[in-house]
Design brief:
With 296 residues, the chain is an alpha+beta fold. The chain contains 10 helices and 10 strands. Strands 1-2-3-10-4-9-8-7-6-5 form a 10-stranded mixed sheet, with helices on both faces. β6 and β7 form a beta hairpin. α3 crosses α7, α4 runs antiparallel to α6 and α9 packs across α10.
Length: 296
């Protein structure tokens, strides 16, 4: 699959793009854990290179062109096969206490109980989708990245096909009969992927996303999956709730052309500037200035 632009981002926000056509090759969790070097299929004449994601840090691609590392991260996952008792025992005491407190607070706001609804079959997902899609439109994932649960006809047809093969698990959390958070996951073999997630910002104080994530994982320990994959990138909730992880990196692999060298110079400069800004933001004397720059 080709991507028409090389994005320059601060967190989830895209600041600028550089027109490049990239073949994206994303390793699955199983592939990353197996530690096998991915094959690079031949590029089309109009393609400028590859975006290789979730490559284990111990591996290097078989590539003779320009190579640039965009980020390093731990790809977190939950070992469902180990069981719920082992998972909870592996969480820090503070995390267990925090999850319990958040669930109690949200239940109190809902009349004393948690209202979490599960969806699996095609008929169930046909009821899930319009509610989750309306909720997705309110989320930052949708506003900043266009990464909320899709609502186009092709995506709905894909959902129907996956559901027919028992390849989807989804959840909605309600507060006083109002949808507050959703989670949509698809299967990759015996691994379930963390694909689409979001919550209504008006319920943020009740931490609906964290409560829903804990409930979903509790369900999955009795399901058929061996692992729950938090996918690429890091996040506090991933670190807190995962039972394991593998060190990975994303690489930009470009043909050695003059235009690509120029694009790579821009990317290097931008990423270096972001690192300087992050270090500055950690310094109390410069934090306020960094916040003003980020808001601008």
């Amino acid at each position: 699959m080709s991507n028409a632009a090389l994005r320059l981002q601060i967190g989830a926000r895209t600041i600028a793009t550089i027109p490049r056509r990239l073949r994206r090759i994303g390793l699955s969790l199983d592939q990353a854990l197996a530690g096998l070097r991915p094959a690079l299929p031949p590029l089309a004449s109009a393609e400028h290179g590859y975006l290789l994601t979730s490559l284990p840090e111990t591996l290097s691609p078989d590539w003779q062109g320009l190579t640039f590392e965009r980020q390093r991260y731990t790809r977190y996952y939950v070992d469902l096969a180990a069981g719920e008792v082992a998972w909870r025992a592996g969480l820090s005491g503070q995390t267990r206490s925090t999850l319990k407190r958040k669930a109690k607070k949200l239940a109190a706001a809902n009349g004393g109980t948690l209202d979490i609804r599960r969806f699996r079959t095609a008929d169930e997902l046909s009821a899930f989708h319009p509610v989750a899609r309306a909720l997705a439109e309110k989320t930052y994932q949708e506003r900043l990245m266009g990464a909320g649960l899709p609502g186009d006809a092709a995506s709905i047809q894909r959902t129907e096909a996956l559901a027919a093969g028992d390849q989807i698990r989804a959840w909605l959390l309600f507060v006083n009969d109002v949808a507050a958070a959703y989670l949509w996951c698809s299967a990759d073999g015996n691994t379930l992927r963390y694909d689409y997630v979001g919550h209504d910002p008006s319920f943020a104080a009740l931490s609906p996303g964290s409560v829903l994530m804990e409930a979903a994982l509790s369900d999955l320990f009795d399901d058929r999956f061996a692992r729950f994959d938090f996918t690429e990138g890091e996040g506090q909730h991933k670190r807190l709730m995962a039972s394991a992880g593998i060190a990975c990196r994303d690489l930009l692999l470009l043909r050695p052309t003059l235009a690509n060298r120029g694009a790579l110079t821009l990317v290097r400069g931008f990423d270096a500037g972001i690192m300087v800004a992050k270090r500055a933001a950690a310094m109390p004397a410069l934090r306020r200035i960094a916040d003003q720059v980020r808001r601008a």
